## 1
Amino acid sequence: MGKYVGIDLGTTFSAVAYIDEKGNPQIIPNKQGENITPSTVLFGGKKPIIGTVAKRKSITDPKNYEAFVKRHMGEKTYSFTTKDGETFRPEEISALILTKLKTDAEEFLGDTIEGAVITVPAYFGDPQRQATKDAASLAGLKVLDIINEPTAAAIAFGISKDVDTSQRVMIYDFGGGTFDVSILEIDADNIRVIATNGDHKLGGYDIDMAIVNYVKEQAKENGFDVNSDIKAVQNLMIQAEAAKKELSSDEMTTISFYIKGEDFSIDLDRETFEDLIETVLDTTVSVMQRTLDESKLEYNDINKILLVGGSTRIPAVQSMIEEETGIHPSSEVHPDEAVAIGAAYHAVDVVKQISDGTFKTETRDTGKAFIPSEIDTDAVPDLDKNYSFHDITSHGIGVVVYDSSTDKMVNSVVLQKNTEIPAEVIRDGYSTTSNYQEGIQLQVTQGEDVNLDYVTIIGEANLHIRPRDHIVPIRIMVSCDRDAIIHVRAIDLDENTDLGEVTINREKHNMTEEEVRKAATRINKLNIGD
């Protein structure tokens, strides 16, 4: 029969949820009985270990331990190397985590996972989103849809609280490794994202590192070099995370570990802790204000600030938000589970849409509709409430052009940031730069700045054009599908000919089709589910 689930593939923890036959959301526990699974992998044995056991054993084998891999999704140059010299791409590490989530969920449910909605940070760009889809493919998961984490949390909030009046909600999503702020309008039937901002390399990890660096300095003053003992460094990382959590409820905690066989202990009080993380929290305030500015709203236009992500449990985070905004933040949804639950609700909706032919998404680079081969509508319940949601682009998409006034190459944004998706924008006013030009080097950008130093080149292609004795006008068409995957086309307006789709150079950031195929075989042989 099969089940359809929502997956929050987090930086520090991941979760899986489904909607039961009565229409109630259920978090699926892993084999260890935990509702959330640490997104950690330990190599070195007969097969990789994932989750809590990997985290615990990492102290004795830190060189074979990988965590926070989500921060490296979409980075072609990053790989993890085990002590034996075996390398793994971020997509492969994430696939191992997803494989455990899938296997544990199927064992708990006594059924197969037929499809999943997977969430990503709102501020993930094209390379990170494609890497997430590749990781799911390696794990043998059929991806029904990719949605933003704040949107998923808003769905969970809207349905669980039975929202029936229009309100503006700011989602403050402070997770283990990523940070997003989104402003949404929610009413009885719709969720519309107005603006989003964030940093996919800002999160609880940075708070942990503030503690780690402080302890290292204190240890050095007492004659201990923590960095000289790799096992001590790993132990300290775990101790720092535990201290952060303890200081959310207690005024004092003690960090104690061994450095080259010698015991070292230090007390850490909440006041010192809050001083250590002030810079991190100030950064989140800046992101909040920038998001507000882009939405052309004031804080008094916001009805509610909803806290999502484990790092929002820190009292200093909550007091900082209230001091900055004048709004007491709400913990009405579970910070660790809301995203997976919202994704599960959306999975039900997607299956219904696929069944009646109203749902469309796209596969990698093809532009063809992706429809799972079999959809079992009996596997999903009828819900009392469904949301139609409207998401937006988190980055501007443009092309590199020559600016004759400055004699420089600059970024020209075609698809503006915060545009509702799916979207297509057609823009004229481009052209070749010389007579008898035979080709165009078209570079696609991600970012809003005119200066190329502050944007990312996400794709490029050399397009052939028939040479003529004059400048040829060019039209650029940029589309963004509902997964926020980008497509770009160029049109020769002189002859009204399609120069072809500019394939986003995902090989610069992501795995090629051949690499995906080989990695899938490799992941399958590791037998994570045994």
## 2
Amino acid sequence: MLILTALAIGLVYASLLYLFSKKYSKSLTVLLFALRTIVVATVVMLFVNPYIKQKTYKIEKPIVILAQDNSESIVLSKDSVFYKTNYPKLFDSICNLLEKNHDVETVLFGDQYTNISNVLNTISRQYYKKNVGAVVLLSDGIVNQGVNPELNIENYPFPIYTVTLGDTIAYPSMSIQDVKYNKTVQANMLFPLRVTANALNFKGKDMNVVVKMDGNEVENVVVSVTSDRFSKTFDFNIDSGDEGVKQIDIIVSPVVETFPETSQSSQSKSQRRNFITVTDKKYRVLCIAKAPHPDIAAIKSALDDHFTFDVIYYDNVVANNDLPLQYDLLILHNTFIRANNDSPLPTLSIVGNDFDAFNTSQNIVKIKRGAANTNLDVRGRFNNAFGLFTISSDIKNELKSYPPLALPHCEITFNGRHDDALLMDIMDLETPNPLLAFATDNDGNKHAYIFGTGCWRWKLYEYYHHKNNDGFNEIFSKTVKYLLTEKDKELTVHHKDSYLNTENITLTAELRNPSRELINKPDLHITIDCKDVRPYVSTYEYVFSKGENNYNLNIGMLPEGIYNYRAHTSFGGIDYNASGTFTVESIGIEAQDLTANIERMRSLALQTGGKHYYITDIQHIIKDLENDERITSIAREETRYDDLINLKWLFFSILGLISIEWLLRKIFGIY
């Protein structure tokens, strides 16, 4: 329609100028008439500035992903000099050769734990629907976290070319494959400890498994090794003893040292150090729910053994005097405590669709039902301004991938101060609305609110992708621990129970004045003592930095050990103190097994249609990738819409037509 209108205007304008003119020959008049019509019609269209559709074709070279194992087990092999000096140059040369005909992207993994299954799953998600030709996995195949990758790789979307690194010679060795235990146990009780130990090429010898607590031997088992590839699981029951943090050392070694002390024979002995927290406090948790729900079982599983968990079902608003027993914490699932008799207990409220009952039960937050009578899928993202306690960086990054919670369309309004740990994302739109929030009532009781049901899906998601529930457990256990912090405690320090010796140790603290108001005017000092089982003590002193209304401290990395701390400050003539304990664990499990797992690397390549290479044959991978018919460039059609006025060639076309018209009129004497 626009073209016809512009053309009509151009015809009218050209007709007024040339149709009744007798100054030119017939053929020249027609030519001038056409030129003026085209120019005027084009200018009219430029005034309207329509969009034009343009199609382009882009050639995409195939992507080759180089997944490089950066674990400690590779550089601890007998060829450590090669992998520290020559191998990086070899890797760079392979990248340069592949870049001639491919788009090469590198993925580094295994800085702390080696989880091949996780990195392969991450690659498949990030490069979904992209022109990935192959994944080149350069690793020794040693896995110390997650599931064995060859077990669920058959339907992997990309062929995997594997290059085996490290030491491929199977020296006699003994190693600790896995240790399972509860990190928190009750005082003066037996707790289970399960150790899985391996022995390679020690058939006919004896294996000795020793368990020590705080340097004292508590268990000693000797077993005969019956095969060259031997594995056995040992179950121990250890007396936890008194309250405190205990150091557990597990040592696996041959009864008689078969080899002289060399770098190769050092593999015959293996040691693992772990820490447990022994407590004599057992918390009682009451969960009140409107009906059975999988959220309840998921939250219960996230709590340690020093929690008892009772559930009752009540399809109404519960009054305090209806509670059957005295508890330390209430978890309310779509059923709530009546507001006219405020609960003296901290509460975790999971808000579903019963907004009226929720609003009646308390006066901290109000929810107004939205105009749309539908359920929303709400996802969580971490609020970087949150400072009540810390969350691991891995969990922060993965929160957006968690399945959504279900929540009716609503408006959430807090009547006072609140701290939001997680914020809502609705259909990929980031909102300021809270998903997990904390608040304190006038009596100093702490309350947490989860807006939406279905958190059990988070647990299933984690187990499906990582074969553990570490992230889910951390979120809910830290939420519960924060709620259980004594309400009359003016100075509170928040931290993880255990850190790795490769991660930064971060602490946050809150200071409240006698009016229960958060303050951070005075400097907050902390003294940290490291006490090993040896007669050795190291002391560190720091000063917290001040946040908006709290304190923060990043002390970097610390050596392995048990650390006791005391935080202290003074304000208004009052001394404030807080103390506690945390541990730092070593990730030296990479050194437990140094023999490359060739069969695993072969299996990954075979099941995905790739090929397997040793490091000495790595140059052959270039030719094989070039000859793989599955690895080809593709042409992608791209459609875009541009403003007509932005086309430079159109401007020069108009200028050219006007110039031709002017030149013709000039030649024939009109100008």
## 3
Amino acid sequence: MSHQEAMSQYAAALKQGRKAYKEALLRGRYPYPQVLDEIISDSMVAGQTELGVMEIPISQIAGTKTAGRRSAFSADFLPLLDPDSEFAGKWVSLCEAHLGDEGIRDPIRCYEYFGRFYIQEGNKRVSVLRSYGAPTIPAYVIRMIPVWTEDPAVAAYYDFMQAFPKTKLYRTRFTQAGSFVKLQKALGFEPDHVWTEDERRRFAAGYTYFQEPFLKLGGGELPITVADAMLVWLKVYSFRDLIALSQAELLKSVKAVWADVKALSEPIAVRTDTPEAKEENLLGRLFKPKQLGRLSVAFISDQLPDQSDWARAHDLGREYLETVLEGRVDTQTFYGVHPGEEAEAAMEEAIGHGAQLLFAITPPLIGACRKTAARHPEVRILNCSVSMPYAGVRTYYSRIYEAKYIAGAIAGALSRSGRIGYVASNPIFGVPASINAFALGAQLTNPRAEITLRWSCVEEDAMDALAWEGVSLISNRDIPTPDRIREPWGLCRIEDGKFHSLASPYWHWGNVYTNLIRGILSGGWESLAAPEGQAVNYWWGLDSRAVDILLADDLPAGVRQLAGILRKGIIDGSIQPFPEAAPEKILHMDTLLSCVHGQIPKYEDLLPMARPIARLQGVYRDAIPPEKEDPIL
């Protein structure tokens, strides 16, 4: 490169730099590079570690270590000083070297903090390379480690630091902790896999390729990263797909999951209200049924009704739906299909037979639901689970804790000693709320009530263990349907060495399905949506008759009357087990009241059969490293 060409390059960079400087001032932004020493103090840093020489992305260079020379550069390190300055002369000499035989060989020296780089030596080298659009620069990096706090940004950064020795990725940053392990799984790697140089290059190429449609769809305006969006995409497609798709095909595929990408920046909308009855408008604008006024619905399950009480309860709900909405709904069933490709095939078959709405009745089917939803945006898909962050697949469940509150009040009224047992199922969303609601109900009628907690997911004989300890009143598993009375279900009393059921909460899935379908028939799918395209979780309770409580015939009249008063009060809203808590907080409750003697079990303490549901719906699921057979949540 000639000296004149280097001067021309400086002039072009100077023009861009001064333009960026003026725009920053007009927008009220700081016009120079940030200074690390002015951003952090010693109390904010837990320590530092030297990472050595590596290629760092120039786009992540945010500023300088100290204040010297910062006024010579715009915020993006383009020059601001006149062409006849000493600074400009040195810049031009570096520019000549950059494109000459010698090149810019010496690495810069910088500090890294929260994934951003702050230059200590080599500002002009950065400026020259940035003016040419170079993606990376060699640098000797010293990492400043922030003090640990519960802040999500700090947790995500610590997750990045833990993953960095394996991936050596600086461009790929997530906003949620645990995402790097999910990325490993999405790429088919074991959690501890150390990436090869070839794997890093291939991923970097795919990452850059994915970035274009992300930005084209407005991703730059969202409070998430390219990596966040890419991980959402990889939950439906494979990395091989990314490499093989044309840019137009990739854009179409990203559009198919864009609702889920946008939902990352919004909390899940927990809808506790049921749709109001309106004059039916056939099926709503979003459905195109073959026969006016009729909706085709498919039920998918990985369990068989004759082998699973859960599947049987939902199938009874399907039958109830057909009876109540006779002539308006026809149903298909696909039971006993394995999660994954077999479930996807069943969903495709259902759609091929005209299904416009799919109910997948267990959480393990969420992966098949998401992939089918991406392929068929015209079909509405719901999964029976809670707290799934996908706008493209809605979820539904029931507020069983309301009925547990009534059961607890019954237990407190009947307990002489105040010692009451409780057998919990799994440490999943909603279960801690049920335990606490039961305890509050017990203390409502017996202020001395204390709850002894055991878990059936930890010990198979939890009920007998409580009985052996001398506990005579025990809350056991709830009955799945009101016609399935098989002792010992629900709240039980031990009499003559035998369990006698007194009361049991139960689900009424028929009312859930009927309410959902009626809402669609009267107001369309969007009448059941949430604002801003959030992921939606329908969480219905006693007021919608999604749950209820069955009382034994020999329950004392006064206790029966009390249960009726509490039931009526919860339905009309005058009684609330957790009066100050929002539905989202109740659903995600992960602590227990002081009157509950026991704790939420750790994942490693669970029986093998209980671990899969904890991975999908556990209150601590984000802290469990995924396994290859798991869907990536």
## 4
Amino acid sequence: MFSKSLFKQSCKANGIMWIIITVAVCFMLCCVMLIAGNGSLGETKAAIENAVIKGELTSQTENRAINYYDLADSALDHFDNKFKTEFAAAYAQALQSGATQEQAAAQAQTVAYAKAALDLESGYYAALIQELGYAADSREALEIKGAIFYVLNPMTAPGKYMFDEDYKSWGEDPPRYDALLPDLISGSDRYAEERGKYVMNYSSMFLAGNLIKDDNIQLILDVLSDYGVTKEQFDEFGFGDYSYVKSVAQSVVVDYRANLKYRLDNIKDGETEESIKADVKGRCAASLLASLPSDVSDALMEIGQADLYGTLVGSIFFKMAGLLLPIIYMIMSSNALIAGQVDSGSMAYVLSSGTRRKEVTFTQAMYLIGSLFAMFLCTTLASVICFAIVDVNTGLDYGKLLLINLGAFLVMFAMSGICFLASCKFNRSKHSMALGGGLNMFFLVATMLGLFGSPVLPSIIRMSALNAFNYVSIISLFDVVSILEGTLAYLWKWAILAVIGVVCYVCGALIFDKKDLPL
């Protein structure tokens, strides 16, 4: 079944072409892997990913800052109303007991402050938590409580305040809401503005102090773990720094207050205060992705999450660019092995030497398959060496790299089977190359066009209509995406490629064995 002399003849006839093609493919592969792995590709991806992540973190921080401001503003508004009611009653009672106006005001303020603070906790806060459906000891309830009472900073005794030590640890002067109350009592015009600034500043301080706690940072890092964000990156974004978080919170609250005041002063029919607040909040704290057109934001997210290096090596090189030269070699050598010898008349000499037709087809098939296998052994070795040299953040590993090389060989095995079948079928080289070579080149071109419609590319540059070309090319059965993602979908596709190759080689051998030759 196997002819050593015929095999040696095939090696001699096609050896130089094999060496040139193999060296060229390995050289291109090394250039692609080393240049793409020098850091620029990873830096581009990291820059996009970091911009998206930082934008989303900023948006979430701004949303929380506005929520804290609204919570504290509403709570202190309730405190003010309760304080004024209790102050009036206590002031009148103190005057009746014979105190001077000054003494009565001082006594009434102390009494009213204590009652308003107690009502804020046992009445307003308790009702709010119940309305929102949170358990009293839940993280959400405690966060709301902090947003309210850190801003008030309740007085626990004359000259003693509940959260002074926390503010001092942040390098801030503790708040004194009781210092604003004389203006509330007197009805001063400046009270509303001073109170607004007070709530804005101290709610931002609480947000910054709360956000930089180790347990809260860890919660955020757990959410960002899918993006590979480390504590060092998080600090580089600035969200582990108290001053930065505070400035972000203050900036957005200033913007929120100004826009809200303008919208409420110019309210339109059908608008409510709640709808206006929701709209202004959405505009002030919109994320980077939310502020972009949906196609652009989706594309940025895709690029940020994509494995660009793995896509470049697997889906672009091994599935297209890296197949071009091997396909040329395969078309030329498969034609020369059977049809070329029949066309030139040398097949008559081979058969006249006693070599049977089955022996010819088996030997030539083994040469073609073996030469392709040896070619991809070389690309495997080159790719493994290059991958060991580069230092790039990618989901590609040595195991997946070996599978990609094996998948590329199976594609060539199936395509070479088609060329071998055509070579066995026709007696003229031009007919053999037209069918076998033309069909395989069509597969390659269809794959190139199909790339622009495949999910491998970001949606912003993807042309979905071109995805139809992926359904007319057997190269699409080389599922690089499945290999990179670690799924097993590529196995049944590999099986189809193997079946195509085996069937074509067997059919070619049978056809050549039975057909009439122009000897």
